[in-house]
Amino acid sequence: MVSRRWTLAVAVWLAVTACTGGDGSAASSPVEDSRLLILTEAGDVATLRPDGSEVVTLTDNADDGVVHLQPTFSRDGTRVAFTEVDPGAAAPAIVVDDAGGGAAARFPAPFSPFYYSWSPDPDRLAFLGSPAAGVIALGIIHVDRRALDVVDRGQPYYFDWSPDGASLVVHVGADRLDVLDLQGRATPLSERPGRFLAPEWSKAGMVVVVTSEAGMVTAGAALVAQTAGSQRLVVLDAQGEVVREVATIDGSSAFSLSPEGDRLAYTQMADQVRRVMVADLEGGDPVAVSEESVLAFAWSPDGSRLLLLGLGAGEDDSPIVPRVWDGDGTFELPGFRPTPDFLTEYLPFWDQYLRSITLWAPDGSAFTYAAVTAQGPAVFVQPAEAGASPRRVADGRLSTWSSG
Asked: Which of 30, 41, 364, 389 could bond 11 through an S-S bridge, CB–CB 3.0 to 4.6 Å?
């Protein structure tokens, strides 16, 4: 990812409507035992139930000028990591807190992190930040033994954890596609990276876009034609060998495996429209699941549905329109205006955030987002049912869901 400057929005934390629906009635929770992680309107970090109840405030110092950035659940929902920038401190801090508000561990940051990704084991946390102009560094924290190491550098920088949490696959610059161990030792993969951002590593393998060099076709000494380099969306094994070719790719592509690893959603440019395709990795032709350009997408945890965030039809009050593909067809839900936090910090880098956060409820019954409203930024829960209306559950600038 690339370096970004952060701004603090100073406002007031309101909770009057946190536990009610739009008509004042109690809002029901789609998943009673799961929790949302939010950045409040004032800029503090909190968790709460998806009906707005049982708010646990992890920080309470935003009104003192302290900035909190990038709150991120561990994959099991037991821990939260975020950056804390205190104007009175010598350096930013990386805070790792229990999601229930227990004792927090603080790590002095060698530079201000702008992205976090937990390993499958909630003891390890990878982060990206910019120690200098034009440089991105990768750090790894071993939480339980209180160790922090900066293990690699490059620009731009994208990565994903291996399923066992022992290494990462990294895509750095225009030509690095490596497996990196936790000490920073890199093993280059044999394939040359194509036009994509974040790789993905699951039990099904590593998913990347690879390319072949453009070449010359000759007949004897005469030049007959020049061939363009071709791009292929492929699955690699742990040794970097291609085990499955999924599609030929035009332009840049983002992609995501379904939780079961049997289907792959990916973007394909056609007639200047960024459509989402779904390929069955066991065979068959890919299926287009969107007719409109898609900015971001994400599988539901059970792999039965795909959330598609696209542009609306020019309505100023709801430029982002969510659609859901359920395997049979795609239905549209009410649009919204995303908060500046999501619009500027998350949406442009959604390829990477696909690997570390989720908007979906654990059972796939609903998803969450933060939107600008006339009353200020608010957190909503949207049931993933055709014709359903979103429920406002709290005031806040950012919202993600725990995986369990």
From this structure: 41
Q: Quick one: tokens of 2? A: 């690339």
Residues with pLDDT less than 70, the chain: 1-31, 213-229, 313-317
Which residue do the tokens 């690997």 mark? 355
Q: How many CB atoms lie within 10 A of CB 7?
A: 9
The Cα–Cα gap between 141 and 184 comes to 13
Whether the CB-CB separation of 367 and 361 falls below 8 Å is answered with yes
CA 20 to chain centre: 29
Could you tell me if 177 and 228 are in contact, meaning their C-beta atoms sit under 8 angstroms apart? no
Rounded to a whole number of angstroms, the CA Rg of the chain reads: 22
- What's the half-sphere exposure (Cβ side, CA atoms, 13 Å) at 45? 27
Q: What is the pLDDT of residues 205-221, one digit of tens each?
A: 999 999 976 533 444 44
